[in-house]
Amino acid sequence: MNRKEHFKPFLKWAGGKTPLLSELEKHTPKKYNYYVEPFLGGGALFFYLNPNKALLSDSNKELINCYIVVRDNVDYLIKELSHYLNDEKEYYRIRALNPDKLTKIQRAARFIYLNKTCFNGLYRVNKKGAFNVPYGKKKSVLICDRARLRSASKALKNAK
Question: Fewer CB within 10 Å of terminal CB in the chain, N or C?
Fold first, then answer.
């Protein structure tokens, strides 16, 4: 395990472990061959531990697509995200897009955009599977944190 460099999550996630990292580290083995995270969410513990090998999973297919795109296509993702604006009308336009009709990179950009601009970073879908969290009305939002996305891509290189 490489503890020389810690990374930070690029998503806000309900139930995120960031405030608990120092306590969680006390209960984490100092040596292991493979890190397995069945409920990835924002990935706070994964990014903090920065393991050499990892298997990451979650039942949220949009979340997993986002991690794969960050790992494999971060520069294209950053380019896509750079066009998004923190604007209520734009938010509802992006939210209404059907992710199944978008490329993987567009889906990941949409996911990050909604996470950054929705109310409290929540992820919620209706019975039809459509994202339905309202606009967050935050004045200042860093939609495309290039440095954090590139760091996350680096951390994810040895993860499946």
Answer: C
